[in-house]
Amino acid sequence: MPPKINYLLGFFLSLMILIFSKPSLALYNAELLPEINSPVLDLAKILSPNQKELLEENLNKFENESGWKIKYLSQFESNPGIAIKDYWDLDETSLLIVADPRGGNLLNFNVGEAYFPFLPRLFWVELQTRFGNQYYVRDHGEDGSVLDAINAVKVCLDRGGCQVVPGFTKEQYIWTLCTSILGGLVAGFSAAPRKDNEFISLGFLALLSPLWGMLFGVFGIAPIITRSSEIIPLFKNSLAFSAAAITGYLLSQTVFSRYKDPKKLD
After folding, report:
1. pTM recorded for the entire structure
2. I need a labelling partner for 222 at 20 to 30 A (CA). Which of 28, 75, 158, 266 fits?
3. pLDDT exceeds cutoff 60 at 26
4. Domain covering 3-159, topology
């Protein structure tokens, strides 16, 4: 099955699971919990000792400064179950990030109700599918996936909320670049003159503007603006759109000139 279909299928299944199901916490294994309360409980040993210590400091500092309680739990052969709720005093301002290497997706989230006005449900689905999928874990490691997901949540909470996950993957950028090029080709072909003594066909350019405008604006530029403040990707996509538009314009000149002069077809 092609990777894009796998990604869309995983996205749909993750959405259904997030909306209609809740993590199974039927067990009660309080003996797995340390005596000292820590926001990081790494039972699966995903993080190194230095990473664990730094994450504990960051999460404690973030909770003291913002009031948002972010907790991280990794599990493998056993887990504390519902004992974790009392251990961390989970409430509507709590976010429980669970990492389980045994599943198809590494990450799962137990999200408090107070988060949803700032980070909607689709945000959590994208967060899971982007950082928890097997390809991202393969390229960045399990520890990288966990830390990147936590950092994305912190960044959005510092901003006052996000509709989408900040940043974009290489595949996402390639998609925006391709749609920018396609939009430029459509704009170039539509702008080609159809009449003598005409330099640009403004009528056809305006007629097809919903198509090339959607390809370039909605799919080529908007995903970058909503996910990043970087200028270089915008510049690259704009340059690609312009180059494709010029190319389409010149190619269409050749095609239309043949129809205007039938002798060139012989």
Report:
1. 0.69
2. 158
3. no
4. Diaminopimelate Epimerase; Chain A, domain 1 (3.10.310)
